[in-house]
Design brief:
Number of strands: 17
Helix content: 25-40%
Number of domains: 2
CATH class of the largest domain: Alpha Beta
Low-confidence stretches: none
Radius of gyration: 24 Å
Mean pLDDT: 93
Largest sheet: 9 strands, mixed
CATH architecture of the largest domain: 3-Layer(aba) Sandwich
């Protein structure tokens, strides 16, 4: 049994995990973590692949909460006594996931664990976080908590049962930040798709090995970048109606090679060109594309004071763009091709207005690949929420 500590959008994170591990069986889930059983678990590979998971590891104990004790945990993470002549040190962190009442109940557990580990002959340091927050991935790395005999422990409580997990991998925050903020071309005017969201979308598409992926609204190439890092696609195609965006994508792809994030050999998989999505069939052969992953136009920048009439007008324009785009894209898609697309939902002081493509899918020749169409991505104080739809060609 294994666990994943989820990012800021748990529904999206869980969907991504099951797209990558379709055989996995859910044991327990919340807005913070997921416990699952999987025969294909490879922690190193998964951590490099997933965009929405910040920690993962193995369950080292499960049982009744009444039997949980500091001595039990000490024996699990340090089964033998330390040689006093070596003066071995052991650092640990302990995050308790559960209700505030549960957290209060086990408030003294780390202190007791520290004493039990010292009794085993270890020099012990208890790594804590501010205000009782979970130990962050960066703290795990900085303190070496994944290095034996150290331990980053995640205690998960469900009713009268407890699960104890030991972290094996954490998200590489520096790598994600580098691809987000250090790439040479970023266009805030047209909106910036976060690399983590782009990665989750790519994984949700379940692109076949040696398949062909297309982003017909590629912008500065965030999805292209994440696709080449996360898939074994034969070709990664990006198109955009604006020449400037194509130039941005090319510059960012060259930066990936320069920074040795990808090889020049891998970069040959890219094919990028200027094209209106309505004429995309002039550039691509019929029934040649396995998957489309894209974020289209989200509308003009908002300040939050727009009228409902203005937001409705914006939504209608984008809905028409998507209807026409999905009609044009049908011709170049393989049978049963997958699409992961983003449509905007606007909010102001009077309410919300969303672009609702779902009622139009049937006559356009598509269907929802998942009956749960509630995946979304938003940030605090933003006036646009991204709704993510996973579609299939009928």
């Amino acid at each position: 049994m294994h666990f994943c500590i989820l990012g800021s959008h748990p529904d999206l994170s869980i969907s991504e995990i099951h797209a990558v591990l379709p055989e996995a069986k859910n044991i327990l889930s919340s807005d913070k973590m997921l416990l699952l059983e999987s025969k294909n678990w490879d922690s190193d590979k998964l951590m490099n692949l997933l965009g929405g998971t910040i920690k993962l590891g193995d369950i080292i104990y499960q049982g009744p909460i009444a039997k949980l004790s500091s001595s039990l945990i000490a024996n699990l993470i340090a089964p033998t006594n330390a040689d006093p002549q070596q003066k071995r040190s052991l650092d640990f962190g302990l995050t308790i996931y559960g209700s505030k009442l549960t957290q209060k109940k086990f408030f003294k557990l780390p202190i007791q664990l520290k004493k039990d580990l010292r009794a085993k002959g270890y020099s012990v340091r208890w790594v804590t976080s501010k205000k009782g927050e979970p130990i962050s991935p960066s703290a795990v790395v900085k303190c070496g908590l994944c290095n034996i005999p150290n331990a980053d422990l995640c205690l998960m409580i469900n009713g009268d049962k407890v699960y104890l997990g030991k972290t094996t991998n954490v998200q590489n925050a520096d790598a994600w930040s580098k691809r987000d903020y250090n790439r040479p071309k970023r266009d805030s005017k047209n909106g910036m798709l976060p690399p983590k969201l782009a990665r989750m979308m790519v994984n949700l598409a379940q692109i076949p090995s040696n398949g062909i992926i297309l982003d017909p609204f590629c912008g500065s190439g965030t999805i292209l970048m994440e696709a080449i890092l996360a898939t074994n696609a034969k070709q990664i195609i990006g198109s955009d109606i604006e020449l400037k965006q194509i130039q941005y994508s090319e510059a960012n792809n060259n930066w990936l090679i320069k920074e040795k994030i990808i090889s020049s050999k891998d970069a040959k998989k890219f094919r990028i060109f200027t094209a209106d999505v309505m004429n995309i069939q002039k550039f691509l052969a019929p029934k040649s594309v396995d998957a489309i992953v894209t974020e289209g136009y989200l509308g003009p920048p908002l300040r939050g004071a727009e009228s409902q009439k203005t937001l409705k007008k914006n939504a209608d324009q984008i809905l028409n763009l998507w209807i026409n785009s999905l009609q044009a894209l049908r011709h170049i898609l393989k049978p049963k091709a997958s699409l992961v697309i983003v449509t905007p939902e606007y909010k102001n002081f009077n309410g919300r207005v969303k672009v609702d493509i779902i009622p139009h899918l049937k006559y356009l020749g598509y269907y929802l690949a998942s009956p749960k169409n509630n995946l979304s991505y938003s940030r605090e104080n933003q006036f646009v929420k991204r709704n993510i739809h996973i579609l299939k060609l009928s």
